[in-house]
Design goal:
Keywords: Membrane, Transmembrane, Transmembrane helix. The chain is an alpha/beta fold. The strands form four sheets. The chain has an eight-stranded mixed β-sheet with strand order 3-4-2-1-5-6-7-8, with helices on both faces.
């Protein structure tokens, strides 16, 4: 991925390029010239008679390739098209490596096929621009034939694989939607207002061009069925009955020219209608500048850039309400509509403009204002540059079992991570469990699989979601190693996607410990053999970890565990959690005294938080507290969390007659948990398994001295004797002594409080983002 300032290398493969003129060609020429002011642009196109094979204009290189040169600018033979496209593909493939191309901008279907093939071979992304859609209208002889069906099948593939789908009109955005792609981006063609302008003396210039008449109508069009020129000639017969002095100048060539000339002559319109044939685009301004009305009654139109060129020339325009024309003709404001396939409607619109001077002046002024606000090439090229950068953005699908509105630190962190990855130039998608919610108003996509389905069905649905989502992303980031993680991993391997797995704990060990099947610690668990069910869970998480390209862990302790599982050390990256992103949450909290009053707390408060699981050892904390409470009666122990140990612990509190000073609060929302932490004096955690306790970091952010075990990743977080006290797991006496030392000596409490907060500053969110983006970019 490249940053917003770095120069890009952009490749544009296109069959035709000026002097061949059409919507694609004008768009490609102006975009390439504007973009080349800041970036390197390489245009690969077909050879044309009289044009050099290579043109270099600053950062723009135009190279013409192929076996033959094009002599007739209005049409190309099948041989020319096939051989030239093959030559463009070969040259584009070699240039992709030599010029280190960042993005390929494909112009239309044939160019898109080239981009698709190069993407498959090199991995370089492409964007697709379309300027026309209705193939059957453009080529009625092929309508409903096998060729059209094959083309549409290939179109779907080309559009699906494109990084960005761009259209020059809203009608073409809808065309993308017909293929199931609702994310098309509309950026129109522009007009060269400095070239197209009204002639100062139209009458004089008309005489010079041998077009002397009171009313000059002009049609610039390829003479093909879809442009409705045959209807325009029929309309001219009706106009002749109402307007005595007019001429219709038809510029352009095509397969129907002879047929249309014969029609003109048979209708006795030889003096009124002039076929000029093809003209160079550079000569077109002088003809538009002397015209009064531009008309093209097209049956289909992807965009119709010549309408804008006519508007810029201060010429009134008449068109049909089809395709992209409706984007710029507002009937009676910027032009007039006529009905397609309706010669009388065409005639009526033209006669109306000829006879109504006020209406004529209004639509001319409206057209000029429209161009100023919307169809400027500089503004359009800036938008296209943003599209290039959007396409280059790496797309990451994050697969997790939880995501907000699920509560808990991991869900909250994942939400923050996703937002910041987007801000750092990534396109993010989240695949998770849960119900769709109105709160899913993010700058990234969130795909949810309902938790309400029966287990096996839920698993299958999640697998299918992963399978069909994964191909649309470059990188898969697994936050879970079992059902969600396995579904994502298998899908990623099938589609040959890079995988990053995040390893924050061993659920296989946790599950076996919760069910009291094992008593071994985490490290011992990795090397011993157990029941078939346990070994299956171990095998699944080993497969997901070992098969990943990179494994991210939250501590060196977890790195050691990952390596015992079988992950190579050079694949494991340590990224510590952070807590500085909590600043906004903390600033919104009330004062410590107000919070204590609201929470009905007083005295000296010890807080612990975590799942009430056997390895969290809450019983030991309660017993240690019982001893200290006898010495310091104003102490209170608050335990936040829920789990299978809750009832047993509650019974223990009653047995020890501590109901007034030990509060088993249960699971609480994050905001309430933060209130308890800010109200506390000490944070305690008795655990024999802790990869990297995020809750400890959060407690340190509030400046709480930490009393915890020297297990897992705790020694990496807590500096024994400085920011807290490390003791042995389940050592009641050690916990009691630690509590006593802190609560009985305010100097020690304050010193450790200051050190705890100072150490928390090292756990910066910016480090998490920097290291994560570096990993993603290097894959």
């Amino acid at each position: 991925m490249i940053d917003a300032e770095k120069k890009m290398n952009i490749l544009i493969p296109i069959l035709h390029y000026p002097p061949v003129i059409g919507g694609f060609e004008i768009f490609a020429k102006n975009i390439s010239e504007c973009i080349a002011n800041k970036h390197n642009v390489f245009v690969l196109t077909g050879k044309v008679a009289g044009q050099p094979d290579m043109e270099i204009k600053g950062n723009l290189i135009v190279r013409r390739v192929g076996l033959r040169r094009l002599n007739d600018l209005s049409q190309s033979s099948v041989f020319y098209i096939v051989t030239t496209l093959a030559a463009i593909f070969c040259s584009a493939f070699m240039m992709a490596f030599r010029k280190k191309v960042n993005i390929i901008h494909c112009q239309g279907f044939f160019s898109g096929l080239i981009g698709l093939k190069i993407k498959w071979l090199t991995g370089i992304k492409y964007i697709i621009t379309i300027q026309s859609a209705d193939y059957s209208t453009y080529h009625p002889s092929f309508s409903q034939k096998w060729l059209v069906k094959i083309k549409m099948f290939l179109e779907r593939i080309v559009y699906k694989q494109a990084a960005v789908r761009h259209a020059v009109s809203n009608a073409l955005v809808e065309y993308y939607a017909e293929f199931g792609f609702k994310d098309g981006i509309m950026i129109p063609n522009g007009v060269e207002s400095d070239i197209f302008k009204s002639a100062k003396d139209k009458k004089l210039l008309r005489k010079e061009l041998d077009l002397d008449t009171d009313n000059l109508l002009i049609c610039v069009s390829r003479l093909e069925h879809k442009n409705g020129t045959h209807d325009l000639i029929k309309a001219a017969l009706s106009i002749k009955k109402e307007v005595t002095n007019f001429k219709l100048l038809i510029i352009g060539g095509g397969s129907q020219r002879k047929e249309l000339e014969t029609m003109r002559d048979s209708m006795g319109l030889g003096r009124e209608i002039i076929f000029l044939g093809d003209v160079l685009h550079s000569d077109l301004p002088k003809y538009l500048s002397v015209a009064d009305i531009f008309v093209r009654p097209a049956l289909a139109e992807g965009f119709g850039i010549v309408f804008l060129e006519a508007m810029a020339s201060e010429v009134a325009v008449v068109g049909t309400p089809v395709g992209g024309i409706v984007d710029f003709i507002k009937d009676g404001e910027t032009g007039l509509f006529c009905k397609p396939n309706n010669p009388q409607s065409i005639a009526n619109a033209l006669i109306k403009l000829i006879k109504d001077k006020k209406l004529y002046d209004n639509v001319v002024r409206g057209g000029i204002e429209l161009l100023k606000n919307k169809y400027n090439w500089d503004a359009i090229s800036e938008k296209m540059e943003k599209i290039y950068r959007l396409a280059i953005r790496r797309k990451v699908l994050i697969i997790s079992g939880i995501f907000p509105p699920d509560i808990g630190g991991p869900a909250t962190i994942l939400e923050s991570l996703s937002k910041d990855l987007v801000a750092n130039g990534f396109t993010i998608g989240i695949l998770t469990f849960g119900e769709k919610t109105e709160l899913d108003n993010y700058s990234f996509s969130v795909y949810r699989v309902s938790r309400n389905w029966w287990g096996p069905i839920k698993s299958v649905v999640f697998l299918f979601e992963a399978f069909f989502r994964v191909p649309n992303y470059d990188l898969i980031y697994l936050q879970d190693l079992y059902l969600p993680g396995l579904a994502g991993f298998l899908s990623a391997k099938f589609w040959s996607k890079k995988v990053v797995s995040r390893f924050v704990g061993d659920w296989a060990w946790e599950n076996a410990s919760l069910n009291k099947v094992i008593t071994d610690d985490l490290l011992t668990f990795q090397s011993k053999k157990y029941s078939m069910a346990i070994e299956l869970r171990k095998k699944i998480r080993r497969r997901v970890l070992v098969g990943a390209n990179v494994v991210i862990v939250a501590s060196n302790f977890l790195k050691e565990v990952a390596m015992k599982i079988g992950v190579k050390g050079d694949k494991v990256q340590v990224i510590y959690n952070s807590v500085d992103f909590m600043d906004r949450e903390i600033s919104s909290l009330s004062s410590k005294s107000d919070l204590r009053k609201n929470l009905a707390l007083g005295g000296l408060i010890i807080v612990s938080a975590g799942r009430l699981a056997p390895w969290k050892g809450m019983e030991v904390l309660i017993r240690a507290f019982s001893g200290i409470h006898k010495k310091i009666s104003e102490t209170i122990l608050v335990i936040l969390g829920d789990g299978i140990e809750y009832n047993r612990l509650n019974k223990l509190v009653e047995e020890l007659q501590l109901s007034d000073c030990v509060k088993l609060i249960g699971r609480v929302p994050r905001e309430l948990m933060l209130q308890y932490l800010k109200s506390a004096d000490i944070f305690a955690l008795n655990t024999n398994y802790e990869g990297m306790s995020h809750t400890i970091l959060e407690a340190m952010k509030f400046g709480l001295p930490i009393v915890t075990t020297n297990a897992g990743g705790n020694p990496e977080t807590v500096q024994d004797g400085v920011s807290g006290v490390l003791v042995d797991y389940n050592d009641v006496g050690a916990f009691e002594r630690a509590f006593s030392n802190l609560l009985e000596d305010k100097n020690i409490l304050e010193r450790m409080s200051e050190a705890s907060f100072a150490h928390s500053v090292n756990y910066k969110w910016s480090n998490v983002i920097e290291k994560t983006t570096k990993i993603f970019n290097n894959l």
